[in-house]
Specification:
Structural class: alpha+beta
Distance between the termini: 62 Å
Organism: Synaphobranchus kaupii
Strand content: 15-25%
Protein name: L1 transposable element RRM domain-containing protein
Radius of gyration: 22 Å
Keywords: Coiled coil
CATH architecture of the largest domain: 2-Layer Sandwich
Protein backbone atom coordinates (compact mmCIF):
# COMPACT_ATOMS: atom_id res chain seq x y z
CA UNK A 1 0.00 0.00 0.00
CA UNK A 2 2.77 2.48 0.94
CA UNK A 3 4.74 1.39 -2.08
CA UNK A 4 1.82 2.15 -4.39
CA UNK A 5 1.47 5.59 -2.83
CA UNK A 6 5.17 6.35 -3.26
CA UNK A 7 5.16 5.19 -6.88
CA UNK A 8 2.12 7.37 -7.62
CA UNK A 9 3.78 10.37 -5.95
CA UNK A 10 7.00 9.84 -7.90
CA UNK A 11 5.05 9.75 -11.17
CA UNK A 12 3.23 12.91 -10.16
CA UNK A 13 6.48 14.69 -9.28
CA UNK A 14 8.07 13.72 -12.62
CA UNK A 15 4.98 14.94 -14.50
CA UNK A 16 4.82 18.21 -12.55
CA UNK A 17 8.56 18.82 -13.02
CA UNK A 18 8.33 18.42 -16.79
CA UNK A 19 5.21 20.60 -16.90
CA UNK A 20 6.95 23.26 -14.81
CA UNK A 21 9.94 23.21 -17.19
CA UNK A 22 7.64 23.55 -20.20
CA UNK A 23 5.80 26.49 -18.63
CA UNK A 24 9.06 28.21 -17.64
CA UNK A 25 10.31 27.95 -21.24
CA UNK A 26 7.01 29.26 -22.56
CA UNK A 27 7.07 32.18 -20.11
CA UNK A 28 10.64 33.05 -21.13
CA UNK A 29 9.63 32.96 -24.80
CA UNK A 30 6.60 35.19 -24.17
CA UNK A 31 8.65 37.68 -22.17
CA UNK A 32 11.30 37.81 -24.89
CA UNK A 33 8.65 38.37 -27.55
CA UNK A 34 7.05 41.17 -25.54
CA UNK A 35 10.46 42.92 -25.33
CA UNK A 36 11.27 42.43 -29.00
CA UNK A 37 10.50 46.03 -30.02
CA UNK A 38 12.23 47.58 -26.98
CA UNK A 39 15.62 49.22 -26.60
CA UNK A 40 17.47 50.22 -23.44
CA UNK A 41 19.12 53.63 -23.56
CA UNK A 42 21.83 54.01 -20.94
CA UNK A 43 23.73 57.13 -19.92
CA UNK A 44 21.12 59.89 -20.17
CA UNK A 45 21.34 62.25 -17.17
CA UNK A 46 18.26 62.53 -14.98
CA UNK A 47 15.56 65.18 -15.51
CA UNK A 48 16.53 66.13 -19.06
CA UNK A 49 13.38 64.63 -20.50
CA UNK A 50 10.93 67.04 -18.88
CA UNK A 51 7.33 65.93 -19.19
CA UNK A 52 7.40 64.23 -22.60
CA UNK A 53 9.74 61.23 -22.67
CA UNK A 54 8.72 60.16 -26.18
CA UNK A 55 9.57 63.55 -27.70
CA UNK A 56 12.79 63.61 -25.70
CA UNK A 57 13.88 60.19 -27.03
CA UNK A 58 13.00 61.20 -30.61
CA UNK A 59 15.14 64.34 -30.16
CA UNK A 60 18.01 62.19 -28.90
CA UNK A 61 17.76 59.74 -31.80
CA UNK A 62 17.57 62.64 -34.26
CA UNK A 63 20.56 64.43 -32.71
CA UNK A 64 22.93 61.50 -32.14
CA UNK A 65 21.93 59.42 -35.16
CA UNK A 66 21.42 60.29 -38.79
CA UNK A 67 17.98 62.01 -39.03
CA UNK A 68 17.16 59.75 -41.98
CA UNK A 69 17.09 56.80 -39.57
CA UNK A 70 14.43 58.49 -37.41
CA UNK A 71 11.39 58.54 -39.71
CA UNK A 72 8.55 60.10 -37.68
CA UNK A 73 7.21 60.83 -34.21
CA UNK A 74 4.81 57.90 -34.55
CA UNK A 75 7.70 55.43 -34.50
CA UNK A 76 7.68 55.26 -30.67
CA UNK A 77 4.88 53.77 -28.63
CA UNK A 78 6.40 54.43 -25.19
CA UNK A 79 9.48 55.78 -23.49
CA UNK A 80 10.10 55.81 -19.76
CA UNK A 81 12.80 55.38 -17.17
CA UNK A 82 12.83 52.26 -15.03
CA UNK A 83 13.34 52.12 -11.31
CA UNK A 84 12.72 54.65 -8.57
CA UNK A 85 14.06 58.18 -8.99
CA UNK A 86 17.44 58.75 -7.36
CA UNK A 87 17.53 60.65 -4.08
CA UNK A 88 17.92 64.40 -4.36
CA UNK A 89 21.38 64.82 -2.90
CA UNK A 90 23.21 66.93 -5.45
CA UNK A 91 25.66 64.05 -6.02
CA UNK A 92 26.65 63.97 -9.70
CA UNK A 93 28.11 60.46 -9.33
CA UNK A 94 24.68 58.83 -9.05
CA UNK A 95 24.14 56.62 -12.06
CA UNK A 96 21.10 57.76 -14.08
CA UNK A 97 18.20 55.40 -14.58
CA UNK A 98 17.86 53.47 -17.81
CA UNK A 99 15.30 54.43 -20.44
CA UNK A 100 13.12 51.74 -21.97
CA UNK A 101 11.93 52.77 -25.43
CA UNK A 102 9.21 50.79 -27.20
CA UNK A 103 9.13 51.09 -30.98
CA UNK A 104 6.01 50.64 -33.03
CA UNK A 105 7.94 48.86 -35.76
CA UNK A 106 10.63 46.22 -35.18
CA UNK A 107 12.57 47.38 -38.25
CA UNK A 108 12.92 50.92 -36.86
CA UNK A 109 14.36 49.49 -33.66
CA UNK A 110 16.81 47.33 -35.60
CA UNK A 111 17.99 50.25 -37.75
CA UNK A 112 18.77 52.32 -34.67
CA UNK A 113 20.50 49.39 -32.98
CA UNK A 114 22.65 48.70 -36.07
CA UNK A 115 23.57 52.36 -36.45
CA UNK A 116 24.55 52.60 -32.79
CA UNK A 117 26.81 49.58 -33.02
CA UNK A 118 29.01 51.38 -35.60
CA UNK A 119 29.80 54.55 -33.66
CA UNK A 120 30.11 55.84 -30.11
CA UNK A 121 27.11 58.06 -29.46
CA UNK A 122 27.27 61.33 -27.54
CA UNK A 123 24.40 63.53 -26.45
CA UNK A 124 25.32 66.93 -25.00
CA UNK A 125 28.61 65.64 -23.64
CA UNK A 126 27.23 62.35 -22.27
CA UNK A 127 28.12 58.96 -23.67
CA UNK A 128 24.94 57.16 -24.69
CA UNK A 129 24.70 53.41 -25.09
CA UNK A 130 21.82 51.59 -26.76
CA UNK A 131 21.14 47.91 -26.12
CA UNK A 132 18.37 45.47 -26.91
CA UNK A 133 15.98 44.95 -24.00
CA UNK A 134 16.47 41.32 -22.99
CA UNK A 135 14.92 39.26 -20.24
CA UNK A 136 17.16 38.47 -17.29
CA UNK A 137 17.51 34.79 -18.21
CA UNK A 138 18.49 35.59 -21.82
CA UNK A 139 20.93 38.29 -20.67
CA UNK A 140 22.61 35.77 -18.34
CA UNK A 141 22.93 33.21 -21.14
CA UNK A 142 24.46 35.81 -23.45
CA UNK A 143 26.84 37.06 -20.76
CA UNK A 144 28.40 33.61 -20.56
CA UNK A 145 29.87 34.19 -24.03
CA UNK A 146 31.60 37.43 -23.01
CA UNK A 147 35.08 35.94 -22.51
CA UNK A 148 35.00 34.03 -25.81
CA UNK A 149 33.68 37.08 -27.67
CA UNK A 150 36.51 39.20 -26.28
CA UNK A 151 39.09 36.65 -27.44
CA UNK A 152 37.50 36.39 -30.90
CA UNK A 153 37.52 40.17 -31.17
CA UNK A 154 41.22 40.28 -30.25
CA UNK A 155 42.00 37.72 -32.97
CA UNK A 156 39.83 39.69 -35.44
CA UNK A 157 37.54 36.71 -36.05
CA UNK A 158 34.08 37.58 -37.38
CA UNK A 159 31.29 36.53 -35.05
CA UNK A 160 27.75 37.41 -34.05
CA UNK A 161 25.60 36.54 -31.08
CA UNK A 162 22.11 35.68 -32.22
CA UNK A 163 18.98 35.43 -30.17
CA UNK A 164 18.64 34.04 -27.62
CA UNK A 165 22.26 32.96 -27.06
CA UNK A 166 23.86 31.34 -30.11
CA UNK A 167 27.39 32.34 -31.04
CA UNK A 168 27.99 32.26 -34.81
CA UNK A 169 31.63 32.28 -35.91
CA UNK A 170 32.91 32.77 -39.44
CA UNK A 171 36.52 31.54 -39.53
CA UNK A 172 38.65 30.39 -42.46
CA UNK A 173 35.62 29.89 -44.68
CA UNK A 174 33.91 27.82 -42.00
CA UNK A 175 30.60 28.91 -40.45
CA UNK A 176 30.11 27.56 -36.95
CA UNK A 177 27.36 27.84 -34.35
CA UNK A 178 27.88 27.34 -30.62
CA UNK A 179 24.98 26.99 -28.22
CA UNK A 180 27.16 26.84 -25.11
CA UNK A 181 30.11 28.98 -24.08
CA UNK A 182 32.04 25.83 -23.09
CA UNK A 183 31.87 24.47 -26.65
CA UNK A 184 32.91 27.85 -28.05
CA UNK A 185 35.82 28.07 -25.61
CA UNK A 186 37.00 24.53 -26.52
CA UNK A 187 36.86 25.39 -30.21
CA UNK A 188 38.77 28.63 -29.64
CA UNK A 189 41.46 26.88 -27.55
CA UNK A 190 41.96 24.22 -30.23
CA UNK A 191 42.30 26.77 -33.06
CA UNK A 192 44.32 29.61 -31.49
Amino acid sequence: MWCDCIVALEKSVVHLSSENQRLAEKTEDLESRSRRCNLRVVGMPEKLEGGDSIKFMLDIFTEVLDPVIVPSPSMLDRAHRIGPPPPVSGDDNIRPRVFIVRFHNYRDKERILQRQSRDQLNFRGCKVFIFPDLSLSVAKKRAQFLNVKRKLHEKKVKFSLRFPAHLHVDHAGEKLQFDSHEDAQRWFDSHF
